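Notes from the 1:1 (GR / supervisor)

We went over the backlog. Supervisor wanted to see one worked example end to end before approving the batch request, so GR pasted a single chain during the call. The sequence is below; no edits were made to it. Supervisor asked that the structure be written out right there so they could see what the output format looks like.
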Amino acid sequence: MTQPEIQFVVRINDQIADRVVKISTKEALKPLRIDASETRFASGYTTKSTEWDFGNGNVDTNEGDPQFEVQMYTP
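Structure output shown during the call:
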């Protein structure tokens, strides 16, 4: 069985997230807006659940497609 194709699109404060996203000090004082709502599987597949691991001890799991999240950042 082959794996379904997926297109990951994640934006952090409106920047497309690649390997590195640079957040200015001023911008980091505000909540980070993390948006993966444009992520899509190939036709015929759906997302059962999504999980965000923010790397700061916070993990958020949601049923269904990737959503828009807001998280405070502590350098």
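Supervisor's comment: Residues 42 and 48 are 14 Å apart (CA to CA).
Batch request approved.
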